[in-house]
Specification:
single chain; 787 residues; alpha/beta; seven-stranded mixed β-sheet; seven-stranded parallel β-sheet; 26 strands; binds adenosine-5'-triphosphate; nucleotide-binding; RNA polymerase recycling motor HelD
């Protein structure tokens, strides 16, 4: 370090020290305020009723009492809110104290004096609240840091564009209030800082990237115009990271009107949910709502049908080639995920005025009390110009009327009396309590026998009918299975291009439905049809929807989600090279869904996760891989070890794990092609090495050695990846390319491929220079190899 640099660093450390004094001062001030508010709140809770005037004598008094309670409750909740906000601010200040900022720009706005802008995870002002000592990374001026090198620069504000000259751009790594390093940078965000961040060990929780956001990522994060933002980015290009910082940005930018409750992220699996859950809290924001599409389907359909999950569907695609209906099912998956199938359902719905609706008889005590034929009559009597859901509601009202009349009739029947005789003591007590509630608490017993009898009769009949009424209210009298089945049983007069395998598809669809199984490919079409009949569900509270791994959704699923969130902006993030599910051949399909919306596409081609050597290898695994650009971080070349049998394989893998551990890697994944192979690998090695198995229900993972099937590793990353068996036998079909690529791109620092016998064609087609083939004896020497 030159003398000049040392002097500058000392000056910066001095500023940090000053900053810490200021932050401490604010922390103390806020802590005092917090304890005042806390005691205020406790006092308010204690004296809540003392300060309220309760008088219910006259209507005016009631209104006054109500107003007084309301005022008191508002006061209390205002205190609780302030307490919550102060608590949140104190947490942010503690983070700022540790690392007040990560960047600085010196900017001279045209016609103004030069300013030093320090950028951190939150803003911080001086004691007089006049000047920003730290700017929030999401403030308009902070975008200069991400978007420009020193020189002419500009940024957007709500009032317009500000232009000027940036004379300095500096990055810091500060920990525990101490400067660790500092770089002045010419390009957008300097390499040194990224090298430091990316060179570290993988974590089991995703980290925020605010200090090193790249210019093209910043475009995603700050995009405000597009109703539909499509991000197509290569593996490890920061799609998920950009999405999460975008959530934080939106929460800041629209803080008056938008809260985390209004944002929803669809993730590929529950494991991913927990992987990303720490990013927003780290940035001082609350997590958005998170779900998986499967979770949503289950919540809507799960109680009545066995809804297959996407992983079982994938396991079928990967493992069941020998099955007699393998190719039919593949065709079925493709067709049912397409917009043609959606159009087919729409045409079917259009023809429903001519017939095609089915209802179920309603039974009471073994007898039909409302027949399906009567319901059909009711439905088809109604004006066909009315929507189907409206007509269904009217049929429901009619059924309820019939049930009420039936209840009256039932009261006179002998079974009721018999039931009363056998009423348990508790039932009798419950009936009595209910009577008391109705007739006031003054009475100690029923007034006379007749009244008691009348009341009990009513109670018994109502109790018997309750489940029936409940299911009618939930429209369970519609025979959805039969209605959906018609798409396959009837010769539909519909102008839709059917796939050549249509007849066989019809067969397997009927068989599954008869067993009450909803294959994954049927779940969304079934739900769509159900909602078009029962009434559409729309979610109005969600304003932004993020769909990660969007390439794995079918066009039908996209269309469904668009309709579910009609007022929501959408951000889709995906990578066609990682499309592991069959039905999603092209993310471009989303354009068919919404051709007129204000759509914008951003492409990310630089991969940050893996070393240059790993990216050079993995880019050769995919068709258009030459567009993938590695970030310049050096590491070891991937290795390939060809072994003779499973025993040999496990031996070599054990050695490899040991070597990787000696090198200090903390998250090591043995990736299997599917659940079976992964379990097998785990069982074979578990007595000899500590590790744990991840299955589709797993919701989090810890540091150490994990055995994980490829499709569950989606979206997450490890220090080192061991591909359990990358043989031609295992990865010899074109359709397995994406799965193979996805697995290999999970590695940050090292990638080791093992193969029993001949290696996969995806490897043999690679330039030989991109990986090392280890002779049989060389595994032990892995540790010594340097590149
Ligand atoms: N600007 C950045 N600064 C620092 N780290 C970054 C940056 N962009 C990406 N990364 C890191 O690169 C890795 C990959 O990022 P991320 O998981 O967001 O990529 P992705 O495109 O969603 O990947 P994939 O599609 O392969 O799952 C993460 O470790 C992330 O922290």
């Amino acid at each position: 370090m030159s003398k000049e640099e040392a002097k500058e660093m000392a000056k910066e450390q001095e500023r940090i020290n000053h900053m810490i004094i200021e932050i401490d001062h604010t922390i103390r001030k806020l802590q005092n305020r917090t304890s005042d508010i806390k005691s205020d709140t406790i006092e308010l809770r204690k004296t809540f009723w003392q300060d309220v005037t309760v008088n219910l004598d006259e209507p005016d008094d009631v209104i006054e009492t109500f107003t007084s309670i309301k005022q008191q409750a508002e006061l209390l909740s205002e205190r609780e809110r302030s307490h919550g906000q102060l608590h949140k601010r104190l947490k942010t200040l503690a983070r700022l104290k540790d690392s007040p900022y990560f960047g600085r720009i010196d900017f001279k706005e045209d016609g103004e004096a030069e300013e030093h802008i320090y950028i951190g995870i939150a803003s911080f002002m001086d004691r007089n609240e006049e000047q920003f000592l730290i700017y929030d990374w999401r403030a308009p001026i902070s975008s200069l840091y991400y978007d420009f090198p020193p020189g002419s620069a500009s940024y957007e504000t709500p009032e317009g564009t500000i232009t000027g000259e940036m004379t300095l751009k500096r990055q810091y790594i500060i920990r525990n209030g101490q400067m660790i390093s500092m770089f002045d940078t010419g390009i957008t965000i300097g390499d040194e800082m990224l090298q430091e961040v990316l060179g570290a060990n993988a974590s089991t929780q995703m980290k925020s990237i605010v200090a090193t956001i790249q210019r093209e990522q910043n475009q995603i994060i700050r995009n405000e115009k597009s109703k539909l933002l499509v991000v197509q980015g290569v593996a490890g290009s920061g799609k998920t990271s950009a999405a999460l910082q975008r959530v934080a940005y939106l929460l800041y930018r629209y803080r008056e009107t938008l809260s985390s409750e209004n944002i929803m992220l669809f993730s590929p699996n529950p494991l991913f949910n927990s992987y990303v859950s720490t990013v927003l809290p780290e940035l001082g924001e609350e997590n958005m709502k998170q779900t998986t599409f499967q979770e949503y389907l289950d919540s809507q359909l799960g109680t009545h049908y066995r809804v297959e999950d996407p992983f079982s569907q994938l396991e079928f695609i990967l493992n069941e080639e020998a099955s007699a209906y393998y190719h039919t099912r593949l065709a079925s998956i493709r067709f049912k995920g397409s917009l043609h199938f959606k159009a087919l359902i729409d045409s079917f719905l259009d023809s429903i005025h001519l017939g095609g609706l089915y209802f179920k008889d309603i039974f009471f005590r073994g007898r039909v009390i409302v027949s399906k034929m009567d319901m059909l009559d009711q439905f088809y009597q109604l004006d066909a110009a009315m929507s189907i859901p409206n007509r269904i509601q009217m049929v429901k009202d009619w059924i309820m009327k019939v049930l009420r009349a039936q209840a009256k009739k039932e009261q006179k029947k002998s079974w009721v009396e018999a039931e009363i005789q056998f009423l348990e003591k508790e039932d009798y007590l419950a009936a009595y309590n209910s009577y008391k509630k109705k007739h006031g608490s003054g009475e100690d017993t029923f007034n006379d026998f007749e009244e008691e009898q009348k009341f009990l009769i009513k109670q018994v009949v109502n109790r018997e009918m309750k489940p029936l009424i409940h299911s009618v209210k939930r429209l369970k009298f519609i025979d959805m299975k039969k209605i959906y089945q018609q798409l396959f049983t009837e010769q539909l007069e519909i102008e839709q291009p059917f796939p050549p395998e249509w007849d066989q598809i019809r067969q397997i669809s009927i068989t599954a439905l008869e067993k009450n199984i909803l294959p994954y490919e049927d779940a969304t079409p079934f739900l769509y049809l159900k909602e078009r009949i029962e009434g559409k569900k729309v979610n109005l509270s969600i304003r932004h929807v993020f769909i990660d791994e969007a390439q794995d959704y079918s066009p039908f699923q996209f269309a469904y989600l668009k309709e579910l969130f009609p007022y929501s902006k959408m951000t889709l993030l995906g990578d066609m090279n990682q499309a592991i599910f069959l039905h999603s051949k092209d993310m471009v399909n989303i354009f068919q869904v919404d051709p007129d919306s204000e759509k914008e596409t951003i492409t990310l081609t630089k991969s940050y996760r893996s070393t240059k050597q790993i990216v050079e290898f993995t880019k050769g695994l995919v068709i258009d891989g030459d567009k993938i650009e590695p970030f310049n971080r050096e590491g070891r070349k991937p290795t390939l070890s060809i072994v003779s049998d499973e025993q040999d394989l496990q031996c070599k893998i054990l050695e490899c794990i040991q070597t990787l551990r000696n090198r200090g890697y903390q998250t090591i994944a043995v990736i299997g092609k599917n659940a079976n192979e992964t379990k097998h690998a785990f069982e074979g090695l578990s007595g000899k090495v500590d590790g744990y198995l991840m299955e589709k229900g797993s919701i989090h993972y810890e540091k150490g050695l994990v055995f994980i099937p490829a499709y569950l590793a989606k979206g997450i990353e490890f220090d080192a990846v061991i591909m359990y068996n990358a043989s031609q036998k295992n990865f010899g079909r074109e359709m397995e390319r994406q799965l193979f690529y996805t697995s290999c791109t999970r590695a940050m620092h090292e990638l080791h491929l093992f193969s029993i016998g001949k290696e996969s064609m995806f490897i043999t087609r690679q330039p030989q220079a991109t990986y090392d083939v280890l002779p049989n004896s060389e595994i032990l020497e892995l540790g010594e190899r340097k590149h």
